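step: validate -> pass
step: tokenize input -> pass
step: predict -> running
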Amino acid sequence: MYLFKTVTRDVVEHVTSGRNVMLFGPLGSGKSSVLREVAAALEARGGRVLSAQGDLGGRQLGGQILEQLGLLRRSSDRSPAAMFTSARDALLQQNDAVLVIDDYEQADPLSVHFLSSVTSRVRTVRSYTSGALASPSWPEVSIDLEPLDFEQVRVLLHKELESPASLALTARVMSKSGGLPELVRAIAGSSRLEGLIVLENGVWHLSSSSLWSTHLRSFAQRHLHELNDEETALLYQIAQGEQTHEPIAALASRPPLRSLLRRQLVRMAPTNQSEPVLYVWPPIVADLLRREVLPGSNVPARPTSEASAPMEQTLTGRIFQQDADELAPLMLQSWEKERTPARAHAYLRKATGSRFQRAAIERVFHETVTSGVDPLDAFLFEFQHAQWVALDLGDLRGALAVLRAYGEQPSALRPAAQAAAVLLTVFLDRIPEDYGDGLSVEHDVTGLTGIVRSMILLFSGKVDRARDAAPTAADQLFSPAFHGYILPLISLYEGNLELAAERADASRASALIAHDRLHYLGASYALAFTYAGGGQIASLDAVIGDALSTAKATMLLRPFFGATLGIAAVNEAFRTGASDSSAALIAEVEYYVPRPGPLYGMGSDVPAIVAHHVLDPVSFDRDMANAIRRRRELGYFAAAASLTVVAGCVYAGPLVSAEATLLGQRVQLPLYARALNLIPALVRSDFAAVNDILVAPAAGDITLLEQIVGSELRRAQRSGDDDIVSALQSPLAELQRRATGSFQPIRSSRSALKVAELTPRERQIASLVADLKNAEIAEQLNISVRTVENHIASALRKTGTADRVALSRLVLSR
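step: predict -> pass
step: emit ->
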């Protein structure tokens, strides 16, 4: 295999120099492929290669060698001892023979003894599975086969699929395979065979929420060979994420876990807590354990539907889903009776979040737009149509086609359609070099063009220009996005976390009461990212969990939550207080990273890197730097800066440090300015520069600086660098003092959630109860007094308020 050319060349050079070589690697690491390449290369040089396996149906090495030399039939004595003697004598007469042995760890004792007797005269190349029970006899040279990194997985997928793979697909395959080449090839082949991936415009994309296929079952089961029931039960428990019954440190000293760790089926990740984290490796084995009962095991497996189900829906999620699934059919009936634009818009706002209304939605869109409505209404419906295609169906290219078609028509609203098309192009391709300067802002009556330009500039790390480009006002359709997403993020990147949180939370509460799902999720992202920057992990986790349970089909906002996915992954592996939502976000990544576009692939690569290299700082530095560089080269400088800071909170080596230096010179994001300068200063141990950077940190970045300095201090403590520990203890203590209470989470959305749970009629009546009696409300609304009483009782129960005055005050305040 071409990826192993370097290893093959090294092995051949050692063998031709008269050395014996041992290849080490886990199952699926490509040892067999390397041996085949080595054999072909040696034969091309005129050498004699004899291939054998450690365990070939009970046939020992002596018989395999005699057969290849054509001497097996001449041997009258077929006893193992006699065949080994004959094989040894025959081998010693071969001048340039090289013995290539796969699966050497399975060789029987007599074969091992035989090899020891010929090694001094016959060169050998052997492969050995890491963690196997047998003790290898060490030759002159040993070579470890490392897992592939992201770029290597991408190259291998290109070769196997004969066309390039998208970033999202590459990240998913890397995550599931653990970077093991044979697993990458198996996943690529089975996914293509079963239609789990699709070729679009010459690039392979995901077409399913999972890459698991029955064709992978036997491949995954190979990793479980020779496990006893106790080991299988423990492996299953770890795969399900269940808590162990005793401390992990104590468990690691006992045979089951010790065996799983040695075989590298389980990995142990350190955290800031006393207990490390256990996880199954490679992840595809965990998929197998979640889906079915293993042969010969009495361990029950979780049903497939439960294994792949998304996290449990929250109250907010139920509110939005009830809107979509229960109210949409009623509004459709209303539109059928009177087909006005107002009724169509009311129906579409609810139905586009439904699981059941797809055909009706298309019909209402088509009939409304072609019915001669006002041009502004026509554009709003086309925009809503494109939004639905992108948001709920995940078809960004289809949405782009809708907008481009409308943008080519002569209309005063053409600039808005063109701006929306540019935004989708950003998601699908990259940041435009002109940052959207060519868009016609002054001719757009909706304000959307200014919002799009502001978003592009934010993605590009130019917060000052983003603020200048933001419209002073926007059409009612786009105003929630402007106030709920753009303004909070501008405040966040400027380092004003309190203002960012207040703005995002206020917009989130308004969207919740209005049952506006899209803008609720946009404001939720802004609030989640603000909590991430302020170190409020529990609040971050709650916002993510609530937003993701609201509608897992929300495709358009997934890349933004994908950015937070990296933070959740690092939090889960390294920080205290990791909770259910961040764990679910990582475990169910396939639900939140859809098919197309570079921005969409950027959420799923970080968890794979963290999982791969949680114990390997050098590889972590390399792969994180590659991930940062991918974002930077596509123009996503804000995402690159965010990921650099995330890496600095874990471990920043020379490669991440180099990226931090480049970004520090390029981006205009006050929130990250000190952090991007701090990382290189710590890597080069320039403590004078460190102290200068930390002299007067802005309130918004204190937590980030504290995490980065703390990470370097912990690294120094582990490696025994006493000078670094001494230099950083005092600055870290001062940062921790300043960080305490510097930024607190917003609590106001709880009241909004209470109000949002009320029906429109309950909210209407609740707003009147402080000033009017029940009979007066009944007369004003033309309903019965008993109906008024029932609505008041229901509203008091849902909101938990004690009396009519408190109920009215709560509703009116929102």
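step: describe -> The beta strands are 21-25, 48-53, 97-102, 123-129, 141-144, 197-200, 203-206, 266-269, 277-280.
step: cleanup -> pass
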